[in-house]
Amino acid sequence: MHGLYPNDASWIDTAGRLLIVAFFAIVWLRNLARHHVEDHVKRLTFFKCPMPRQAFWAGMVLDAAGCVLILANWHPAVGALLLLLFTLLATLLLLRFWEMNDPMKRTGMQNGFLANVGVVGGLLLLLLILM
Fold it and tell me: Is residue 7 scored above 70 in pLDDT?
């Protein structure tokens, strides 16, 4: 039995695809809250990201576009690549644990960094299915 999408070999592929998109969509919606926007801009500024506010919104566009392309099954591999790019850039810009002096902040950021390594792994597997 095939999954919901033509590239999905089974319902497990479809479930994986939808769970990955749900993760990114939920975080995207949460990040629309004013205090989250300002927190991200503040952290991007702290880590010396050029044009931090514009970088934040560019990331939001990458995230949304990737989700829509995957859900609509219209160039879904491009959508997976957009989410990969978003995750890699966000990780390198916001989770620079090696620059933190406070051990608790360092550990928290390192955990986030490592979680994103797992997300990248899931996105690579999704990309394999979509190609």
Answer: yes
Residues 119, 90: Cα–Cα separation, whole Å:
12
Q: Which residue has the tokens 């990309």?
A: 127
Q: Which residue has the tokens 């514009």?
A: 54
pTM for the predicted model, two decimal places: 0.90
Comparing CA positions, the residue from 53, 52, 62 lying closest to residue 28 is 62
Count CA atoms closer than 13 A to 110's CA, side-chain side.
10
Helix (H, G, I), strand (E, B) or coil at 90: helix
| Residue 126 token pair | 């999704």
- DSSP 8-state symbol, 97: G
